[in-house]
Amino acid sequence: MGCVISRQAVTSEKKGSGGESNRKVDEVDNGCEKEKIGGGDRVQQCRGESRRSKANPRLSNPPKHLLGEQVAAGWPPWLTAVCGEALSGWIPRKADSFEKIDKIGQGTYSNVYKAKDSLTGKIVALKKVRFDNLEPESVQFMAREILILRRLDHPNVIKLHGLVTSRMTCSLYLVFDYMEHDLAGLAASPEIRFTEPQVRPDKMLHESVAIRT
Ligand SMILES: Nc1ncnc2c1ncn2[C@@H]1O[C@H](COP(=O)(O)OP(=O)(O)OP(=O)(O)O)[C@@H](O)[C@H]1O
Question: Mutation test of ligand 1: which of 127, 130, 145, 156 has the most ligand atoms closer than 8 Å to its C-beta?
Fold first, then answer.
């Protein structure tokens, strides 16, 4: 996930493709994720979940009581076993508390959806992470991203607000503030002219320091 700028600064076409409108993010059905698309149900397999439900000795081995607490809080064992630290202090949001509006983008390991948070009414971006068979290495890779994003607090860095998953599912969504535009899209638009401080914020900082001294 790169940095995304400008919430509503410019109007342009919606990013990405998709058009899957107004549906629940997913439903839990016999331990597998069931995603409602265009009236039909597509069931995704929970590949390797039982295989991954034990802590992997090669990877981080958090204390057993912590794992137990996290599973009791609703986190799936395959996630707590590999990245307990990244989840610390959070409880998982439920998938049915968001309503998908549209698919807005795609990354190397993810699909990104515009969605409405039914609890707050806020529009958010849900990044659905694709794992390779829930391999601990790929889950841990995502855990690093989650840990770093949780620590970052800067107006130019998009905020991670939480995670959507449950004990019964093998899917994971990251909940972000929704941005109307991304930097690549703005840079590609011939009508958009960036100001010098937008292009070189470090230069602006140096100049303001110079003026103050
Ligand atoms: N918070 C957001 N608000 C609006 N659109 C977003 C948001 N996050 C991502 N997108 C859209 O989804 C696209 C893919 O996002 P993603 O963060 O997955 O990209 P990436 O960093 O290139 O992918 P990856 O992390 O998988 O390598 C972005 O280019 C952007 O168009």
Answer: 127
